Structures are given as structure tokens and as C-alpha cells.
Amino acid sequence: MGITDFLLEKITKVSSQKKDMKENIWSKCSGCGEISYRQEIEDNYQCCPKCDFHFPVSAMQKIEYIIDPHSFIEFDAGIRSLDPLKFKDSKKYPDRIKAAVKKMDMNDAFVGGMCKINGREVNIGGIEFGFLGGSMGSVVGEKITRLVENAVKHRRHVITISCSGGARMQESILSLMQMAKTSAALAKLRMEGLGHISLLTDPTTGGVTASYAMLGDVIIAEPKALICFAGPRVIEQTIRQKLPEGFQRSEFLLEHGMVDTVSHRKRWRKDMIRILDFFGYN
Q1: Checking CA distances to 187, which of 8, 15, 211, 231 falls within 20 to 30 Å?
Q2: Distance between the two ends of the chain, CA-based, in angstroms?
Q3: What are the chain's domains?
Q4: 47 known ligand binder
């Protein structure tokens, strides 16, 4: 390689590195369209410092915003989905699961366990939207149920964090069964005098909304989150009418009594501590 070729290769490499560095430093907000330093966004709980748009974050990150540092102990991490219906669309269901496991480095769409919040033991779990749209199949329903049953056994309150496209179609009726199963588990929790705080993040839809997510003793919503059973487009096409501005968003639901409060991520921990203090010790 001649000196000219060497210098050209070096310049191209440096330019590419500078471009990557710039892209890593800046981020464009999907809410207001403004560009901000990534560090500013991170310091603001992954929210836009100009308009407070909540950027998507993982289920585990949401959990960490709430709990005492390094206090989380995961339950049932090894459970994996089977393929009882031999479902196939453009891909076989096991292939979709395998790809999601590799991409997200988790075995299914729910992560849950025991943690401490302000020194108090609480069971907490959240749905990971990046795993097949956070869909609730047999494994997700089973893990939520086990989380709640463990809470009953050890006299702990429960926090669930929802972010889901709804029931997992590849499991058909077996997925829909999880709506009843998770709801029944929460009924037992309530009978034992234990509390359930449900945190709804963008989006929370379908069978998840129609079951455990709306069964919280206190329901908290992330700002501007889509929370619904059927989405706005489906409803508009069905009733052939234009829906109100902000329909099915957190603030609309708060105004109509469907959620108890809308809370910025930076307030989640304080809100949880205050609600748990109200629930009391068991």
C-alpha cells in the first residue's frame, strides 16, 4: 500500500469515528424534534430535557429507577416458551422466540423478582417490549402469577410495570388464559390485604390492559402513554368517527377516572415509597 492510499484509509477511518462519536453525543427527540446531548437525556431519566418526552427504556431500567440500588433478586429467569400449537406464519414460532432471546438476552418478555424500596421488601416485575412486542404468552402469565403468589407467601406488596402489545397471538387461547390466571392471582393478593401498584408505560394495550394491568389498587401512568384495549385506528375504522384529541393517552384516562395519577419517571421512586407507606407493613 502506497503512502497516499494509507493516508486516505486513515482519513476515512477517522472521519467515520468522528461521525459515530457525533451520533452518540446527540439525540433527536421524537416528541418535539429538538436535538439534545445524550448525557442530558440520561441525566433526565431518559426523557427529553426540552419537552419531557419519555424515550423507550428496558423493563430492567424501569425497575432500577424505582428500587434500592443492587437489591433486585430475579425469580424464574430460566422459563422458556414452548410451541404447543405448532404455530407458523412467515416464520415458525420457535424461530421467533430464538431470535428474541438472542436479541434481548432474556428468555421471555417478563422480568420479575424481589427487591427493596426504601429498605422494604417488595415484589416487582416488568414487561420488556423489545421481546416480541412485550406480548403476554404462557410464560409471561406464569411468571406474573408466580410473582404474585410469592408475594402472598412472604407478605409483600407487588408492583407491576406494563409495556405490551397485548396477548401473544402465536399461543392463541393459551395466551388469552393468562388474563384470567393473572387476575385470579391478584384477587388472592387483595384477599390477603396486600397491595398492588400498577405502572402503565407506553404502550400498554390489548389483553394486558384488559387483565392485571388495570387491577392495581393504585394505577400510575407514564406521561402521554398509549393505554387501551383496541387502538385508536381500529376504533375509528369501526365506529367511523373521529376520536377526541389525546384519546387513550395517559392524561385523557386521568381526566376520565381510569388511572389515579400521571407520573414522570423521576418521581416514580418517591411515588412508590409514598404509596407503600400508605399500604403499611404486613
Answers
A1: 231
A2: 74
A3: 1-55 (no CATH), 56-279 (3.90.226.10)
A4: no
